[in-house]
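Dear all,

This email documents one entry for the complex benchmark we are building for the journal club exercise. For each entry we list the sequence lines for every component of the assembly. Then comes the predicted three-dimensional structure of the complex as a token string, followed by one or two observations. Please use this as the template for your own entries, and keep the labels exactly as they appear.
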Amino acid sequence: MGIIDNINKLFDHRIRLGIMSILVVNEDADFNRLKELLEVTDGNLASHLKALEQANYMTIEKSFIGRKPNTKYKATREGKAAFKKHIEALEKLLNK
Amino acid sequence: MEEKDYLKDITEIKQLMNRSSRFISLSGLSGILAGIYALIGAAVAYWLVSNSGRDYLILDGDVFRFIMLDLFLIAFLSIATAIFLTTRKAKKNNEKIWDASSRRLIINFLIPLLAGGLYILIILNQQKYGQTGALMLIFYGLALVNASKYSIGNIRYLGYIEIILGLICTLYPGYGFWLWVLGFGVLHIVYGSIMFIQEKRA
């Protein structure tokens, strides 16, 4: 089954899917913004972000705003392509 | 994996995309009120000019100054009302009034609007005021179209109509006043009402 192959295991989780959904339509998002939108705890969000980063689906940019550390997340081209493929697979599954 | 779950996934993706990139709490009622202010302001301006003994405007007379004040008041009241009602609605929607999406909306709205506003002030100083109404309509329309990418989709169409009215106004500057009334008064009321009805239904 070719369709099933395109279902991305990494996106088979609500929070990881949510993070990617936000990152593909926004240039970037910081940690607090993601937390607010997804309504998750710090630790939970951090572990899912790590998984996506390890897959090279997004990059992390650390900087300081004044004295406060600020972490920005950006989807990579690879991540966007994988996300698109996953969505197409979902649509095909639903339309079949 | 159940099919139902995938459907839920898709819905959630859509929601997150919208919520993270668009500010949706614009209030329809503030549109209606802005239209009403514009109509009252226009009536005042009409009355001022027709009682000035002339049927045209001179640029440094008292009447002109009153009309500038009149315009400023319309803008000020419309913005104040919009901020007040939008804040109220955002609270109800559980949406933050000042976050990445509202900031983007305001910045993208203000760029064409401020550029246009400055342009109009500059050419007014050069005594070229025949196109003021047209320019206001065109730049306001462009501001709406630009902002619509970051908000609910239908303000884009309001923008298109304002731009078209502005272009018509450029061709027939003599009707500038009435086209302004149509664009800033009537259209705001019509659009605000449509949004208001949609809000009630949602």
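Observations: The mean pLDDT of chain A is 87. The helical segments of chain A are 2-6, 14-25, 31-38, 42-54, 77-95.
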